[in-house]
Amino acid sequence: MTDFNHVIERLKTNRLWRFPGGVHPEDNKQLSNQVAIERPPLADVLYIPLKQHIGDQGHCIVSEGDHVLKGQALTTTYHPYAVPVHAPTSGTISHIGEHVSAHPSGLTEASITLVPDGLDEWCQLQPHADYMSMDKLKLIEILCDAGISGMGGAGFPTHIKANSRKTIEFLIINGIECEPYITSDDRLMREYAWQIRQGMDILQHIIQPKAVVVAIEDNKPEAIEAMQIACNQKPDCHIVSVPTVYPAGGEKQLIQVLTGREVPGDGLPEDIGTVMFNVGTCFAVADAVCNGKPLIERVVTLTGGGIKQPKNVWAMLGTPVSHLVEYAGLLAPQEEESTIIMGGPMMGFTVGNPLMPVVKITNCLLVPEPNELRQGDNERPCIRCSACADACPASLLPQQLYWHAKAKEYDKAQSYNLFDCIECGACAYVCPSDIPLVQYYRQAKSAIRNERDEKNKAEKAKARFEARKARLDAEKQEREERHRKAAEARLAAAKAKTASADNTASQVEQKSKSAAAAAAIARAKAKKAQQQADVATHTDTPAVDTATTEDARKAKVAAAVARAKAKKAQQTETAHNADAPAADTATTEEARKAKVAAAVARAKAKKAQSKESHFVEEKPAEDKKKKAEAQPDDNVQEDKKARVAAAVEKAKAKARQRAQARQKEQGAEE
Amino acid sequence: MMKLRVSSSPHQRITRDTGAVMRLVMYAAIPGLLAQAWFFGWGVLIQLVLAITICVASEALILTVRKKPVYFALTDYSAVLTGWLIAVSIPPLLPWWMTFIGCAFAIIVAKQLYGGLGFNLFNPAMVGYVVLLISFPAAMTQWTPTTSQNMIQPDFADALHIIFTGFTVSGHDIEQLRFTVDGTTSATPLDYVKTALTQGNTYSESLAHSTFSGGFFDAAGAGWGWVSLAYLAGGLVLLQQRVISWHIPMSLLGGVFVTSLILHMTNGDIFGSPLFHLLNGAVMIGAFFIATDPVSASTTPKGRIIFGAAIGFWVVIIRVFGGYPDALAFSVLILNMAVPLIDYYTQPRTYGHRAKRQSVEQK
């Protein structure tokens, strides 16, 4: 990375770097930059899209029929990547719903239809005269609330850029305006240099860069002079005249030209100590802080051979294209097919519906004469002349990208860095075969994005399914484990009994003790069972009762037998090979039966509200079981919580990622 | 409601389309063509008309068979240029049917069977030329002497006659036309030096022959040097008009210069000087008009330099050590084969990325 002092040294002597490629289309700026910015009459209806920036859409806080004042916020949001939109004039909300968007697709999007009342009545504004003493965060909040997003073309929320946590060496103010025909920034700099300077001061106060650089193309000498006068007293501010070549105004290209640094492929300008704002954004920043005005209008160039009086105008956001074009005067008769380009001839898009509104990033409406711009509709085969590669400012190989995009070999296209294409159009501009290269890249990019989304969706579904499966498996395993342990315990008990009879005297003694204990337990159980059965008699069915009592009796008998055996074993101290095991087995068997019976009886008894009949010894076991049962529930709940948290986290990460990606993809005109 | 036309950006393009590029190349080749016609007679122009006609007809035929729009494809002028390049490469009095074979093969096999313009791996004109050179080696080396050294001066009718019948109006055949004023059979300067060297003469001794008299430099063959300079002038116009980039021509000439210089310095008796190699044969027209054929050349900036320099190197190597007196066509075709490889390994570093090879290694 080039050293700060070295860069400053070169900026002072106007020895700039250059970016590879670039083209020199005729700029045709003299058409529209001769007269001062005008203010056209109010449109009959304004269509205000809820989202005019890159990021998330806010939600509407007005409803149909409401009367709003000029500058009143129409949306609100808590999302960090969203800014509100405001009423450009006072009037009535007539409709909230879908309207054609200012987007190449011409699809509809959520918009507010405002019918102006003609009074143009401001809401209460809060100007801040002394921003120098204000807290940085408060200023950032003001920028956000004023709805300011990058006005050069990308529309990235300004408050996010201004709130960089990295150390910024260069605050770059972009007055390049490299697209042919467009003169809105040119006129703005000529007429409002002081307010731009004010915006620069505010941004400088927030960001605290080491130096401020204002870059203007050398085909705008008047703008350079105006900015020089405005920044005369400003130390550490460099007004730099940049050679005119398209796309010098691209964020990445301008950073390269001014600093010799390259924004890393997976990074942002702030990663190399730079941050860039358009001159129009600076103007809006000053308006927001010093006048308290939100962003509700901008300068739009109305130009082209098809316009009677090319000029720049202050257009309220939401003004339909047709209103402005008619204001400037269309040369072609209404019946004839014409072309209106929103933006410049290189990166702009054609307007498909005359009611398309002006939004925060609309800098130009270009109406060319039929043969003014050479479209080149006759696509011929690529002759591999590499004029495109020579023109590419990102040093891509447009030709390879074209082959792979056309063949739908998207992984190959990506290996040639398709996503580093800034869609500046230089390649298609020079192509002798009239191949619409950029269109191929756009299609490939969106196909890849769709594919990626599909894949993500599938992966998420798979992860969800697997998590569920794992949870069910775990539950099942737990259940089985419990069953296995119970069975083992039973088996162990049985073994203990058998062994007591089989083994040597001392062992027999020991075993017989346990046998005696078992017998005692069995006895106790039997007793209890009987008690319980007695208690339960009232409610229980006779059959069960009989069975219970009978079992209890049997258990009693068995217990007695066991006791006898134990005693006998103790006395004789010899193994009763034949009798004892059988008897013991019987005992255990009976005891188990007794237990079962007791359990049944218990259940019944419980039902019959007899609390005393609960066995003390079995309580813990029951508790444990309860716990075991409860646990999966807890697990489920906790799992759910964790998943919700994870999802929230993921969504946040995604939003962050998306915003970063968008910031990175910002078009040439930022 | 106004009617609006919708299209994709950019909405503006330069006016120089493929056809204009091809036409500019031909305009720039006119000085060379005129010089060739001046020194080698009417045959050059007759072959030009013949070759272009055959090429365009072949192209139209195949396009019709392939059910492609014929007029649209023909207006890219690529077939015309192919015919032009074949015509100025072959001996001016070559029998018409050989020209026919070369041109038809170039367009039908080397170009259209590969998919047409933009898809051919090899330079069609050079394929056509090499097919003729391999099939008819004798006829393809029967260059008549420059007009100043001709014993018999064939006029337009003679040239037309000999191309189509094998004999001039007065009954001379091609062998008789090749006699020079000093009674020997003429040869191209490259051919002459090659033969002289095998006969035990030194390089400087062989330059004493009449083939080289009249050249403005000792090393340039009579007439041939002027032709080369005419093509150089046309090539510089192409550079100035940005029809071609400097990479291929400059690296090609550099390759020829460096290779021949090294050889000449090791042994000046048997290896020709750089000027000898640059001003004789097809190096100049090759550097600016043939190797720069975009379709079959390398496309990356670095790749184009490698491509050109390697052609220059091969030309000298084959001329000096190989069996053929000239080798531009072979060298171009050999390097056409290497283009995919060269392009793959010379991709430029994308903005904000590390060099491709580095990032691959790090993966």
In short:
The complex is a heterodimer of chains A (670) and B (363). With 670 residues, chain A is of the alpha/beta class.
Summarize the structure in words.
The complex is a heterodimer of chains A (670) and B (363). Chain A has 670 residues and is an alpha/beta fold. Among the domains of chain A are: 249 residues, 3-Layer(aba) Sandwich (Rossmann fold); 66 residues, no CATH class; 115 residues. Chain A contains 17 helices and 16 strands. Chain A has a five-stranded mixed beta sheet with strand order 12-11-16-14-15, with helices on both faces. In chain A, strand 5 and strand 6 form a beta hairpin. About 5% of the residues of chain A have low confidence. Chain B folds into two domains: 169 residues, no CATH class; 137 residues, no CATH class. Chain B has 18 helices and one strand. In chain B, helix 4 crosses helix 5. The chains are: A alpha/beta (670), B mainly alpha (363). At the A-B interface, strand 13, strand 15, helix 12 and helix 13 of A face strand 1 and helix 1 of B. Strand 13 of chain A pairs parallel with strand 1 of chain B, so a sheet runs across the interface. Chain A: GO terms for molecular function: 4 iron, 4 sulfur cluster binding; electron transfer activity; metal ion binding.
Provide a count of the helices of chain B: 18
Count of individual helical segments of chain A: 17
Oligomer: heterodimer
What's the total number of strands of chain A?
16
Based on the structure given, which CATH architecture of the domain at 1-31 and 126-292 and 620-670 in chain A is correct? 3-Layer(aba) Sandwich
Rg result of chain B = 22 Å
Notable traits:
heterodimer, A: 670 residues, alpha/beta, five-stranded mixed beta sheet, 16 strands, B: 363 residues, mainly alpha, 2 domains, 61% helix, metal ion binding (chain A)
Secondary structure topology:
The complex is a heterodimer of chains A (670) and B (363).
Chain A: H1 4-12, E1 46-49, E2 59-60, E3 67-68, E4 75-76, E5 91-100, E6 108-116, H2 136-145, H3 158-162, E7 170-175, H4 184-207, E8 211-217, H5 221-230, E9 237-242, H6 251-259, E10 274-278, H7 279-290, E11 297-303, E12 311-316, H8 321-328, E13 337-338, E14 341-342, E15 349-350, E16 364-366, H9 387-391, H10 398-406, H11 410-415, H12 426-430, H13 437-502, H14 505-536, H15 542-572, H16 579-607, H17 619-665
Parallel strand pairs in A: 7-8, 7-10, 8-9, 11-16
Antiparallel strand pairs in A: 1-6, 2-4, 3-5, 5-6, 11-12, 14-15, 14-16
Chain B: E1 3-4, H1 18-40, H2 43-65, H3 70-74, H4 78-89, H5 96-111, H6 124-135, H7 137-140, H8 156-165, H9 174-177, H10 189-198, H11 203-206, H12 224-240, H13 247-266, H14 274-279, H15 283-290, H16 301-321, H17 328-345, H18 356-362
